[in-house]
Structures are given as C-alpha cells and as structure tokens.
C-alpha cells in the first residue's frame, strides 16, 4: 500500500537545500507539501501586515514550483497540532518531515505533533535547515549560552564548517489524488481596503527563484564593496537577503558556502568575512531566543524592569511611525519602511535609538511597529535588535550610547542622497524642526539609565 510522505513547510519555503523535503524523497513514495497558517495556537505570534503580504507571494511561488515537479502544496488554516495529524489520517501518510523552529511556542507545537504521530506509528522527523548550528551545540566553557557576540562568533568559527547545501530536486512525485486545499486568496493575506502594498510590489518579488537570483547578484556585484559601503543607506552594498532568509527562500547554508566561494583575497576577503559575521549575528539572535523565548515581551536583562519609562505621548509615537519627527535620517528611514517594508540596517539603529532614548518610548512599542511593517521581521532578530539598541538585551549597546541622528547623517549620508529620496523637505532651505531637543532628551535618557544602574547595584 502506498503511504505518501508529508513535508510540513514553515519558514523554509524552498525546494533547494531543504532537508525535510530530501528525507521525504528518499522514501521513494509520493510527497505532499503542507503549509499551515496557524494564528490560533497559544503563544504563536500573528504575522504582521508586511509579512503576510510576503507570505502570500512566497507560497504562490512554492506551490507553482511543486506543481511543475509533479507534487502539490496543500494549504490549511488553524491549529497545527490538529491539522497535521488530521491530514495524515486523511491521506494515509506514513511519514511527516519538517525543518526545526526555535521559538518557545513553536517548539511546543512541534513536540506535541511529533509525539502524537509517533504514538500512532507514523514516522515523524525534524531537521536543521534554518541555522548553521543548532542552539544547543554552541556553549561556553561553563556550559551556558553565550551572552556576548564576539566570543560566540569566535566559538562558532572553531566548529566544523557548516554542511554543504543539498541540491534542488528535479522531480517531486505527487499523490494520485490531491487532498483538499484552501485557496490562497481566501486567506486574505494581501491588503485591499486600503491597498497599501504598492511600494512593496515595486520593491520585491517573493519566491525562491528571485531569492537565488538576488544572492548571485549580490555576490557578483556588491560583495567586494560590502565592508566599505554597507553603512551608506543611499547605496546598494547590502545584500537585501534578510526577507529571503526570514522566509527560508534561501538557506543560510547556501549563503554561507556561496559567499566563501566568492571570498577571494585582500579587501574582497575582508568584505566577505564581514558579511559572514552578519550571518553570525542572525545565528546569535536565534540562539538567544531559543534560550529566552520571551525575547519580544520581556527585558533580557532583568534590571531593566525598573527602567522609568515616562507616560506615553501618543503624538510622539505617531510622529515616529509616520516619519514626521523633524529629524532627517529618522523621517527618511520610517518612510522607507512604510513604502518598501524594509529599512537600511544603519538607519534601523538610528530610528530605534531615537524612539527609545530620545522619545523615551518603551522599545516594545517600536518592536511591534517593525513587526507589523517589515517584510523581514522574524521572531528572533526583530526583538533581539530592539533590545540591543535599548540596552536591555544580550551584548547590548552600552546604556550611555545614544545615537546622534545628525552625526549619523553627516557620516553616512553626507550628500543627503538618502534623505532627498525619502524625506526631501529636510534637504530644503527651511527643514522642519525636531519635535524634541536632541541634547535635552539625551540627558534625560542618561538620567533614566543611571537610575537603572543604581537600582541594580
């Protein structure tokens, strides 16, 4: 009796270098792809608007690619712990494979599904497809998780090299009879009233083919200038692979090995090493989430629970969200974010510092806004980076480090190319006035941080 295998896709929407898919193909049985839109299970964070837009496009691409190779992508919505076993019963599957997730709620779901399937005699296996090294494999000499990036990255570099990527399958044999699937359009992942995604459509093409093309383009054209130009928001030196990695349209193993192949020598090698360390920073954020699942809601440093956030001024929060703060680099970045679902990393740091340290607004409100508006927002990097800027996270920026947005502008956008594109009124003869005094608010931030330091001591 033919017993198909189910590949449960999640944040790995690709065919190449997909260990779960490879395991299913190795059984020499029909393969059914499954994606579950689970916004009902306890602890699972609902996707933001920009992420939902990207997911629609990436699922459409994955479904088409599976059809071209002979299989099918089944879409179901609801609690994954109920839907996966139900589909197993429906199609008489003999095995279910997936690539691991690392958030607390997601791990609980996966553990429950694996236990239930195995109790029923179904093969259920998970694989490492999203991180170069599993979080439990990188530990300090005292057998604790790393809390600082530099020694973490040093330890990672002493480990065996990441495995080679798996090839893309030419064929994926499907079942003789396709199971029922939701219509992707019925999930209403795309905005309609209003349709605010025009800038996203102009900027991005979700899906594995576009991800692979972008990786090749970056390595060919931009890697050599990465170390020198990556902090300039007006340039194209950054990889713009973050949403591709977030949705797993390309794996970190593919990025790692192809970057190493392009490394060369001299300045080119330095740029490649810097780029690979950014993959390391992504790893560090996921390892931190694995060991601290409440990263998006609680201070990693407990002493910051006493931070004296003042009463929220909604007008200040709205001005920040809309790019109407009167601060050129902040306004340009927030408008780039709204239009494209993306923001240059240097500008992300400046806008986050301005919110949490000049406006003294709780970092969690900024993290939530980025979660809703970034196409690359994931459960680890987004809160990890916000806590890093706020000073409450692992390897956090020192509490006394308050980014001066004017100095950052002078250093990284001296000719106002970025500002002219996104906030042109700041390049005119009468630029708008900032909604707060940068020097005064910096002093207020330092006073607040000093109170935390005193409380901790």
From TrEMBL:
Superkingdom: Bacteria
Composition bias, Basic and acidic residues: 179-188
Cofactor(s) this protein cannot do without: FAD
Region (Disordered): 160-188
Region forming the signal peptide: none
InterPro entries named among the record's database cross-references: Crypto/Photolyase_FAD-like_sf, Crypto/Photolyase_N_sf, Cryptochr/Photolyase_FAD-bd, Cryptochrome/DNA_photolyase_1, DNA_photolyase_1_CS_C, DNA_photolyase_N, Rossmann-like_a/b/a_fold
Keywords linked to the UniProt accession: Chromophore, FAD, Flavoprotein
UniProt xrefs under Gene3D superfamilies: 1.25.40.80, DNA Cyclobutane Dipyrimidine Photolyase, subunit A, domain 3, HUPs
Start and end residues of each Photolyase/cryptochrome alpha/beta domain: 3-132
One Pfam family linked to the record: FAD_binding_7
Name by which UniProt lists this protein: Deoxyribodipyrimidine photo-lyase
């Amino acid at each position: 009796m033919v017993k198909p295998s189910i590949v449960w896709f999640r944040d790995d929407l690709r065919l190449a270098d997909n260990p779960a898919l490879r395991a299913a193909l190795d059984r020499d049985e029909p393969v059914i792809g499954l994606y579950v839109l689970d916004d009902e299970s306890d602890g699972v964070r609902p996707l933001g608007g920009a992420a939902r837009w990207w997911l629609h496009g990436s699922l459409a691409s994955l479904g088409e690619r599976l059809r071209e190779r002979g299989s099918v992508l089944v879409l179901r919505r609801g609690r994954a712990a109920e839907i996966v076993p139900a589909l197993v019963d429906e199609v008489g599957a003999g095995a279910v494979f997936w690539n691991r997730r690392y958030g607390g709620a997601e791990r609980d779901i996966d553990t429950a599904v694996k236990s239930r399937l195995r109790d029923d005699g179904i093969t259920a296996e998970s694989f490492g497809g999203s991180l170069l090294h599993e979080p439990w494999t990188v530990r300090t000499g005292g057998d604790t998780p790393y809390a600082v990036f530099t020694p973490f990255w040093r330890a990672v570099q002493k480990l065996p090299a990441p495995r080679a990527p798996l090839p893309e399958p030419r064929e994926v044999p499907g079942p003789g009879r396709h199971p029922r699937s939701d219509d992707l359009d019925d999930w209403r992942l795309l905005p309609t009233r209003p349709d605010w995604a025009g800038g996203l459509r102009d900027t991005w093409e979700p899906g594995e083919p576009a991800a692979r093309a972008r990786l090749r383009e970056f390595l060919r054209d931009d890697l050599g200038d990465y170390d020198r130009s990556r902090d300039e928001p007006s340039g194209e030196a950054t990889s713009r692979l973050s949403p591709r990695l977030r949705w797993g349209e390309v794996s970190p193993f593919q990025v790692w090995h192809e970057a190493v192949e392009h490394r060369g020598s001299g300045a080119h090698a330095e740029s490649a090493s810097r780029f690979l360390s950014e993959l390391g920073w992504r790893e560090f954020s996921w390892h931190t989430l694995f060991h601290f699942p409440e990263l998006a809601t609680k201070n990693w440093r407990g002493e910051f629970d006493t931070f004296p956030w003042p009463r929220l001024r909604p007008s200040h929060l709205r001005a920040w969200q809309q790019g109407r703060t009167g601060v050129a680099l902040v306004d340009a970045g927030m408008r780039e974010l709204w239009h494209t679902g993306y923001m240059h990393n240097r500008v992300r740091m400046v806008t986050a510092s301005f919110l949490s340290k000049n406006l003294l607004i709780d970092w969690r409100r900024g993290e939530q806004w980025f979660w809703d508006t970034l196409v690359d927002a994931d459960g680890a990097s987004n809160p990890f980076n916000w806590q890093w800027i706020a000073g409450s996270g692992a390897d956090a920026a020192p509490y006394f480090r308050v980014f001066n947005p004017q100095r950052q502008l002078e250093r990284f956008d001296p000719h106002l190319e970025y500002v002219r594109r996104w906030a042109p009124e700041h390049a005119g003869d009468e630029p708008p006035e900032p909604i707060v005094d940068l020097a005064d608010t910096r002093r207020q931030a330092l006073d607040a941080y000093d109170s935390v330091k005193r409380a901790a001591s």
